Amino acid sequence: MTNRPLIIAPSILGADLGRIEAEAERIKASGAEWVHIDIMDGHFVPNISFGTNMVRVLRRLMGEAILDVHLMIEQPDRYAGDFIEAGADCLNVHLEARHQVARTLASIREKGCRAGLAINPATLLKHAAPLLSQCDQLLCMTVNPGFGGQPFLAEVLPKIREARELILRQNYNIDITVDGGISDATAVACMKAGANIMVSGNHLFQQADLTQAVANLRAAARSGNVSG
């Protein structure tokens, strides 16, 4: 469980990109707090998605909405400034990528952007723990990164719980994001474990009524927090 605010972040990777303006309007009307943007380079993960242009487009279309950018790329330190300049409000970089992670996180914060540390399902929390004091959010991948629509990996839940306990013990001001396979069913367990930012792509966008889909996901997550 967590006392952090619950945030629903539709992942643009699951949207109909041929209708990006209409999809942006759906998101704005849905009640979701953030928009999640997955950046993939074909090297760190075996897929290619977007670049800074997508962030600029969504910054223009989404107004004041929070843009949560997830860099699934090698050497994120080389490109972090470009994505912040394009309009990112939060920038998540991977512990497993090739860069000096502490320096990258510090640079992101220095530019006035929220710094997030992302970790893959197989990465142990102990490797991220020394860096948490430099983070605003910890992104726990609940699928192996690279493709949307993968099934949720329940074995990540104990790591989320361990992370929330550590954050509380150290009195850090950190949100925990879950990304991958998040649906009404899996959000319950994630919130119960201590996550409070729910990234969901295909599950939300494949439903005709995005507003109702966001409301259902929010209700499901909250039920996990109440049930403890």
Task: Give an overview in words.
With 228 residues, the chain is of the alpha/beta class. It has a single domain (7-227), classed as Aldolase class I (TIM Barrel, Alpha-Beta Barrel), CATH 3.20.20. Helices cover 39% and strands 19% of the residues. The protein is built from nine helices and eight strands. It has helices at residues 20-30, 52-62, 80-86, 101-110, 125-128, 157-170, 184-193, 202-205, 210-227, and strands at 7-10, 34-40, 66-72, 90-94, 114-119, 137-141, 175-179, 197-200. Strands 1-8-7-6-5-4-3-2 form an eight-stranded parallel sheet. Helix 7 links the parallel strand 7 and strand 8. The longest helix has 18 residues, at 210-227. It is globular and about 40 Å long. The termini are close together. The mean pLDDT is 94.
Briefly characterize the structure.
The chain is α/β, with parallel strands linked by helices and 228 residues long. 39% of the residues lie in helices and 19% in strands. An eight-stranded parallel β-sheet has the order 1-8-7-6-5-4-3-2.
